[in-house]
Amino acid sequence: MARPKIVKRICEEPVSEGFVPAGQHPGGSPVTLTFDEYEAIRLIDLEGLSRAECSERMGIARTTAQAIYNSARRKIAECLVRGRELRISGGTYWICDGMADCPGCRFRGRSGGAAPKFDIGEKEKNSMRIAVTYDQGQVFQHFGRTENFKIYDVADGEVRKTAVCGADGISHGALAGLLDGNDVDVLICGGLGGGAMSALEEAGIQVVSGASGDADLAVQDFLAGRLVSSGSNCDLHGHGEGGHSCGSHGGGGCGHSC
After folding, report:
1. pLDDT category, 22, cuts 50, 70, 90?
2. Which residues of 188-199 are buried (b: 16+ CB within 10 A; e: fewer)?
3. Residue 147 CA to its chain's centroid (Å)
4. Model pTM?
């Protein structure tokens, strides 16, 4: 029987989804640093915690923390020495909910560690709640950096109420917890990476990516069955190049790095 995977606590997600060597094409296939490996590097090398403190923060044994840290250092060294692309994605982890016994946690201070509630009221029975990454009437193109969502409550195929709600400073994969905590059933967005996609799928939220243009129109197209998801569509390789695009709804595209 396979040994069960150990789930690690993460208190801060990466601000970037990876790095590409400058001045040359990456050598070999990309190296993937998992979220828990990233967290070990952040806690030990950046915050200066000891191995014991790192293991306590992540809720794992010291030997496990040491093994994760060693693996992370080897991967980073491989990228630096061999000129390989580094991606940050995956792993077996959960995002800290701000519990009182988590010292230094970025979510500390929230009441009960619960996700902030959107100002739209409770979702009615037999209704569907859609969230759209939102900026000045348009579908915002980077899920992980969105500052606002426009929320649509739909019943019998019609939008019954809407509200523009802030993301409360939460970013990247942790946004899945925010949406899940507010009973969101469907997310419509532009670009998003594989880690965020996995977190949303684990929360049971349907993802419709690749949308752009007017947010209200995107919702109407979704309800009419005209909006098709492009999946995880924010590959790091090639960001910043003219050919990069994270969506085509309405003839639009990313317009910037995702």
Report:
1. confident
2. bbbbbbbbbbbb
3. 13
4. 0.56
Q: Give the integer Cα–Cα distance in Å for 30 and 148.
A: 32
CB 75 within 8 A of CB 13: no
Per-residue DSSP letter, 24: S
Tell me the CA distances in angstroms from 20 to 86, 87, 97, 213, one per residue in order: 6, 9, 31, 29
Sign of the dihedral through C-alpha 60, 66, 67, 73: positive
Strands 186-188 and 158-166: unpaired
Tracing tokens 């009960």 back to the chain, one arrives at 112
**For residues 132 and 146, what is the distance between their CA atoms, to the nearest angstrom?**
10
- How far apart (Å, rounded) are the C-alpha atoms in residues 88 and 239? 15
How far apart (Å, rounded) are the C-alpha atoms in residues 165 and 205?
A: 18
The Cα 1–Cα 145 span in angstroms is 41
23-35: pLDDT as tens digits: 766 667 889 998 8
DSSP string of 144-166? Answer: GG-SEEEEEEEETTEEEEEEEEE
- Both tokens of 150, joined, read 């426009």
Residue 108, Cα to own-chain centre: how many angstroms? 19
- For the chain, how long is the longest CA-to-CA vector? 58
d(CA 4, CA 16): 29
